[in-house]
Amino acid sequence: MASLEQKTETKSDRYRAIVMKMLAEYGSYKPSHGDIEVQTIFDKEQEHYQVVAVGWDKQERIYGCSMHLDIKDEKVWIQANNTEIDIGQYLVEMGVQKSDIVIGFQPPFIRKYSGYAV
C-alpha cells in the first residue's frame, strides 16, 4: 500500500491564508460612487498581496493601493495601509503573533516602539 504524504502547514501558509482572507473581505466592498473596480492581487510565488482601486469618478482617474502586505521570512510585512482598519490588530486577532508583524511603512528606528516586530 502506498503511503500518503502528509503536508505540514507552515507558519507562512497560515499567515498567507489570513492575509488573503482579510484582503478578500476588504476588496469585496464596492465604492459608493464612480465606476471603480476594486482588485485583490495575490502573488503567492513572491508573497505580495494588495488591494487596488482602478477606474473613474466622473472626470477623475482613480488608481490607488489601499493595502499592501508581504510575507518575508515567516513575518507579515504591512507595506501600506491607506484605510481606517488597524491591520496589525486584525492580524493579531486572527492568530498572527505580534512578533511576526512588521510595520514596513515606518522607519526602522521607530519600529521598536510599535509593539510589533523590529
Short structural summary:
The chain has 118 residues and is α+β, with helices and mostly antiparallel strands.
Descriptive notes:
This protein has 118 residues and is an alpha+beta fold. It has a domain at 33-111: XisI-like (TATA-Binding Protein), CATH 3.30.310. Helix content is 24%, strand content 36%. It is built from three helices and five strands, in the order αββββαβα. It has helices at 11-27, 87-93, 108-111; strands at residues 35-43, 48-57, 60-72, 75-81, 101-103. The protein has a five-stranded mixed beta sheet with strand order 1-2-3-4-5, with helices on one face. Helix 2 (87-93) links the parallel strand 4 (75-81) and strand 5 (101-103). The longest helix is centred in the first third of the chain and has 17 residues, at 11-27. It is globular, with a radius of gyration of 17 Å. The protein starts with 10 loop residues before the first helix and ends in a 7-residue tail after the last helix.
